[in-house]
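User: Run a structure prediction on this.
Assistant: Running it now.
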Amino acid sequence: MTRFFSERLDRHDRTGFASGNARLDDYFVRIVSQDVKRNIATCYVLVERATGVIAGFYTLSTHNIPLPEIPVELARKLPRYPNVPAILIGWLARDQRFRGEDIGMRLLFDAVKRFTQSPFGIDGNTQVSKWLGRSVALVEYHAHLGGMSASGLGKSDVETREAIGGLWREF
């Protein structure tokens, strides 16, 4: 069993969190819950298993990058949409009590893992691979292989084919 685990921010005690940066601390202690409630961001925390103390946190938000800001060599392989969808790691901080324990690296790894395992991430990775002329293999390591998540698409969405985009149109 690992020393830390990550999960969505819920009713965790954030009052003792101190990263050493007043702006980050204030955001995490006072504001992040409002962003989560308004669906502006999703917040994940890395918790020390033995104590329940939050070692660090990060937020994920949907974002887009204007096509002209993408490097030319990559942009020429992308569709001509005005913006490229992206996921933004908006805030990330480590509590000072865990300095020197690679908490920042653990938080980044967790964020990338969550993103790439989401339907948006699977679709995005697959599309970029296609644009770069590469192939993708999705591997499921659990004993049960179920249906692919469609982020809440229901019967009415499936019957209206125009409502489905990206990789999901191929199925």
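The CA atoms of residues 62 and 87 lie 5 Å apart.
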